[in-house]
Amino acid sequence: MRVETFAASEPRIRVLVSQGKEFHFKADKSRPLIVRGLDFNGESIKSFKVNLVNGQLRYSINGKLFKWHYLSKNRHIRIRTRDPRGIWLGERRFGGELRLIEEKNTIYVVNYLKIEKYLKSVVGGEMPKDWHLEALKAQAVAARTYALHQLNKKPLYDVDSNVSSQVYLGMEAETNKTRKAVNSTRSIIMLYKGALIDSVFHSSSGGQTESSIAVWGKYRPYLISVRDYDQKSPSYNWEKRIEQKKLSETFKAIGGFNAIRIMQKTDSGRLSLAKVYGPKGVKLISGKELRSIFGLKSTLVSFDVIPKLVNVNKGNKFSYMYGEGLNLTDKEFLLEPNKDNIFYLKPPKIINNNVLLVKGSGAGHGVGLSQWGAKNMAERGASYRRILRHFYRGVEITTFRDS
């Protein structure tokens, strides 16, 4: 979408905040809800419940659960309030307007609101609210550009409210600092050759961001691999052990798991293709698939196969420890030190009881803005513009309309 296409008024965004078969909306305090699309005229609405029963939409008002009103098909309900505290849905409050759309026997709750209001929650949902203001401002510009890039690409809504798009938690995620970050960057976006960029971001890359083509097969000249400054991230180095049961279930088609070998890496060192060896054959698997299956933080990983040893020196109680390699048969192994004694035990015979040790770095897909890298750069004096130009190469930072 080019900058010339934007209208003079502030754009609104459609955010999918929930979907299901039953919802309960409440006014915050004294001001009632304003509900449009009902065959109802009467008392002030403080509470509104809606559900789907046998494919038919019905609602009740102010807790009168024995008095249900049925709605005709293709009826869209619109809920808003004049109360600045917003509308309660579950444990969260939402500003703007909530629209209920019935589609394929599901109720979709879509929040319609102005984009700057939306961003004040997104910044607080995506970054800790106490981080340096320049990092929060960089997040605001990236989130604004991303959101505008997604407008009108889907029929019912523009973005989700979770990590598949951007984290949006309603008014509970807003603070004075997130409002300041958004207000001080109002209307500012990033363009490449006059068009909005796909300003993706992630938590931490492990020292080097990734290119878009390596992750999604789509070349974006502004999404190339650059140095990161995320060394203070709690996910800069991590480990995960995957038990034999999970390995056997995952690779059932090849009889289980014996070993894994990295076949291809990206230029930044991320796993792109691996070969898994089992008793009945081998399987090629992508790094992206492995990350999804095992819940890994990233694909910047290495592997080791270690034995799971059993300490039988504690009576009827078994405790499990992990060895640090497979060649243990000819030496004693320090199984478990404690305050009183140190137990030495020749390792037991290991039969199909290996554990896959994954050592990794970073969290997320690694493309675009690194949030922990932005934090460190901001603390070292970088402005939000400098941060953005580092992670999104060759972009123009400008406004999409006159403020």
Q: If you had to describe this structure to a student in words, what would you say it looks like?
A:
- The chain has helices at residues 115-126, 133-150, 176-183, 212-216, 244-250, 287-294, 371-379, 384-391, and strands at 12-20, 22-27, 34-36, 47-53, 56-61, 69-70, 77-80, 87-89, 92-94, 97-103, 106-114, 159-160, 188-192, 195-196, 201-202, 238-242, 259-265, 271-278, 281-286, 301-311, 319-322, 333-337, 342-345, 354-360, 369-370, 396-399.
- It is an alpha+beta fold and 403 residues long.
- Strands 3-7-10-11-1-12 form a six-stranded mixed beta sheet. A six-stranded antiparallel beta sheet has the order 6-5-4-2-8-9, with no helix packed on it.
- The chain is globular and about 70 Å long.
- Among the domains are: 22-104, no CATH class; 238-360, no CATH class.
List the helices and strands and how they pair.
Layout: E1 12-20, E2 22-27, E3 34-36, E4 47-53, E5 56-61, E6 69-70, E7 77-80, E8 87-89, E9 92-94, E10 97-103, E11 106-114, H1 115-126, H2 133-150, E12 159-160, H3 176-183, E13 188-192, E14 195-196, E15 201-202, H4 212-216, E16 238-242, H5 244-250, E17 259-265, E18 271-278, E19 281-286, H6 287-294, E20 301-311, E21 319-322, E22 333-337, E23 342-345, E24 354-360, E25 369-370, H7 371-379, H8 384-391, E26 396-399
Helix pairs in contact: 1-2, 1-3, 2-3, 2-7, 2-8
